[in-house]
Amino acid sequence: MDTNRTVIIAGGGIGGLTLGVALRRAGISVRIFERAAALRPVGAGITMQTNAMLAFRAIGLDAAVAAAGHAMQRGSILDQRGRPLGTMMVGEMAQELGAPMIAIHRARLQEVLQEALGSESLTLGLKVVGFREEPEGIVVRISDGSEVRGALLVGADGLRSTVRSQLLNDGEPRFAGYTSWRGVCEVPGLAEPSITSESWGHGLRFGVVPLGEGRTYWFATANVPAGGIDAPDAHGELLSRFSGWHEPIRALIENTPAAAIVRTDIHDRAPVQHWARGRVVLIGDAAHPMTPNMGQGGGQAVEDAVVLARCLATEKDLPAALSRYEALRIPRANDFVSRSRKLGAIGQWENAVACWIRDRLFRLVPESSMRTNLRRALTFTPI
């Protein structure tokens, strides 16, 4: 693609910022429009697994991301009493593949990406609201009534993407059947510093992810209808649901301010086979929103960004670049969408007998099989 032509990116989340950095480092002009008036330190934790770190390495960002986060050595699935159902030695796999698995606060990751991008390419407080194609380019409508012209529009605007809505017109995302709560506990010493875990019960799960510096990101899920609220706050709701579960679950909930606990219904979309048309293309949650059960939503957005930037930088013909991007990314990302939804459904089983069988079967999975699946998920080779 002509490097003198500007790529317009809708959305300044992880995918949009990573793409902006990757394109600028390839010599391609970028403008990012983010609806938030400021990238404030809000949100919770996220894991940048080894595949995402390998993608960051391809654009020279892996060291900065690693320095801002905390390396994980082991991941465990537990029952509600804390007994192990399965363990993944992610530290060993990281050594094999040559990059760590990093747990990091979302806000800190955004800071790293924004610093690498530079302020001149990012416009805050404005969003993309529509587009039209012309013979020589794409015309993008902005929420302040202005229009911006470029060579390509990238929809990186999340689960309910405005760009996707106009491009694919495929309706609302699908509810997964459960909601989530997320928080960051600032009290040191409550969780083992290099071990991430997820505990399974009957229609309930609880995850623990150390972020370093004494902070612990945690999440909880429960089978409830969409649109629920916590009254009077999340503390009572969560302490009741997870009463009797193993430590440090109760302590993490109690030591996280109720106002800092975020409740979010879980949604995804059925996989589609095309993310691009004309001069418009999708990445991240706009292209393939997935449930969080494999911890790959952010990582797949990073992979998208790095691969799309490489395709645009190496292919002179825009349709060829977008076609190559789709061929390289759609099968892998869609596989994560399907596998993540299935894993979440199993983890959310409520029937006591079914859960007993599930737990027994998980304990019987061979370590070699877990390593093979983990290697498949964590391997990324830049084009």
What this model shows, in words?
37% of the residues lie in helices and 26% in strands. It is globular and about 65 Å long. The chain starts with 6 loop residues before the first strand and ends in a 5-residue tail after the last helix. It is of the alpha/beta class and 383 residues long. The protein has helices at residues 14-25, 50-58, 62-68, 90-97, 106-117, 162-168, 234-241, 249-254, 297-314, 318-347, 352-364, 367-378, and strands spanning 7-10, 30-34, 45-48, 70-71, 74-79, 84-88, 102-105, 122-124, 128-134, 137-142, 147-150, 152-155, 174-185, 195-200, 204-212, 215-222, 262-268, 276-277, 280-282. A 7-stranded mixed beta sheet has the order 6-5-14-15-16-13-17. The chain has 12 helices and 19 strands. The mean pLDDT is 95.
Q: What is the 3D shape?
A: globular
Biggest β-sheet, characterized?
7 strands, mixed
SS strand fraction: 25-35%
Distance between the termini: 16 Å
| Neighbour order of strands in the largest sheet | 6-5-14-15-16-13-17
The low-pLDDT segments are none
The radius of gyration is 21 Å
Helix content: 25-40%
Instruction: Give me the count of strands.
Output: 19
Query: What structural class do you assign from the helix and strand content?
Result: alpha/beta
- Please state the average pLDDT score: 95
- List the total number of helices: 12
Task: Please render the helix and strand layout as text.
Blueprint: E1 7-10, H1 14-25, E2 30-34, E3 45-48, H2 50-58, H3 62-68, E4 70-71, E5 74-79, E6 84-88, H4 90-97, E7 102-105, H5 106-117, E8 122-124, E9 128-134, E10 137-142, E11 147-150, E12 152-155, H6 162-168, E13 174-185, E14 195-200, E15 204-212, E16 215-222, H7 234-241, H8 249-254, E17 262-268, E18 276-277, E19 280-282, H9 297-314, H10 318-347, H11 352-364, H12 367-378
Helix pairs in contact: 1-5, 1-9, 2-3, 2-9, 4-12, 9-10
